[in-house]
Amino acid sequence: MKRDKSTILENQMLADGIYKMTLETPECAFTAPGQFAMLEVPEKFLRRPISVSSYDSDRYVLIYKVVGDGTKKLSRMEPGEKISSLTGLGNGYDVDTIPDGCTLIGGGIGIPPMLGLAKSLVIAGKKCRVILGFNTANEVFLVDEFKNFTDDITVMTADGSYGQKGFVTDAFDTLDYACACGPLKMLQALDGKVRKGQFSLEARMGCGFGACMGCSIQTKVGSQRVCKEGPVFDKEVLLWETL
Ligand SMILES: Cc1cc2nc3c(=O)[nH]c(=O)nc-3n(C[C@H](O)[C@H](O)[C@H](O)COP(=O)(O)OP(=O)(O)OC[C@H]3O[C@@H](n4cnc5c(N)ncnc54)[C@H](O)[C@@H]3O)c2cc1C
Ligand code: FES
Fold it and tell me: What family is reported (predicted)?
């Protein structure tokens, strides 16, 4: 974890209510896709957690959806402004244990960390297939960016206005291994169709670095903090009935 004061390079709308913020930092603390930052938002006591979408040595990209006052304030910040944050938080995807040819599944605002994961897999010499799920066409974002890392991309929309009609679970019968990030209902639906994999969870967070226990969940291996042992877990340890 690193305490960071980054400079906003861009903060632009990608789709309906979805923004991309690129930040410049003297030293980037992210070491794995799926990690997150806790951002200090003006006039807000608690920092807001946002997953890293991609990163390199001196910059990182966060993609967020405006859902409340904090993210609305974030969307109004301008290039050149500085933002304080904690970066390099959490346990991200373990690229070493992901098999070649793995399927990456993202739903809605769970899609951005999948882009960083696709990039890391390509760097590790592994191929991947990508399945992206949205509600409707005007919420679609990042599809072109995934084309830098794979030709095998399926886009599903619930209303059929872009790509194929249906949910991400309609795009395949069963999978031996998948990495996923998205709404809890999507992850639960995937659980029955995916044998093994790494799933990213969300929880309301206080500190974001393991101190307050506010994000604890029960798993098959005991109590785990979503911010510290997660947000990415082996799906086999999750106890869905407690989430
Ligand atoms: C590890 C982690 C990674 C995340 N990554 C991203 C990301 O990459 N992009 C992104 O847009 N969002 C992400 N989120 C969710 C994001 O943190 C919340 O949407 C944000 O904090 C809401 O702040 P707000 O002040 O705008 O909304 P608030 O005013 O705090 O809340 C507005 C609404 O959003 C809901 N909400 C707030 N926080 C969460 C949460 N953690 N999970 C589910 N619902 C919530 C509230 O219940 C309420 O209905 C992530 C959350 C976690 C825990
Ligand atoms: S948010 Fe404080 S321990 Fe996870």
Answer: Belongs to the PyrK family.
For 2-89, the fitting CATH number among 3.30.870.10, 3.40.605.10, 2.40.50.140, 2.40.30.10 is: 2.40.30.10
- Ligand 1, CB within 6 Å, residue ranges: 36, 48-51, 63-65, 67-71, 109, 112, 202-205, 231
Could you tell me the fold of the domain covering 203-243?
A: Dihydroorotate dehydrogenase B (pyrk subunit); domain 3 (2.10.240)
Q: Give 82's contacts (C-beta < 8 A, 6+ positions apart).
A: 5, 6, 7, 8
Per-residue pLDDT, 139: 95
Asked if domains 2-89 and 203-243 share a fold, the reply is no
- What's the whole-model pTM score? 0.96
pLDDT of residue 53: 97
| Closest CA to ligand 1's atom 47 | 204
Alpha-carbon distance 20 to 4, whole Å? 19
- Partners of residue 103 on adjacent β-strands: 129, 178
pLDDT at 160: 98
Has domain 95-200 been given CATH number 3.40.50.880? no
Q: Of 26, 22, 48, 18, give the one whose Cα is nearest residue 36.
A: 48
Positions in the chain short of pLDDT 70? none
CA distance 233 to 223: 12
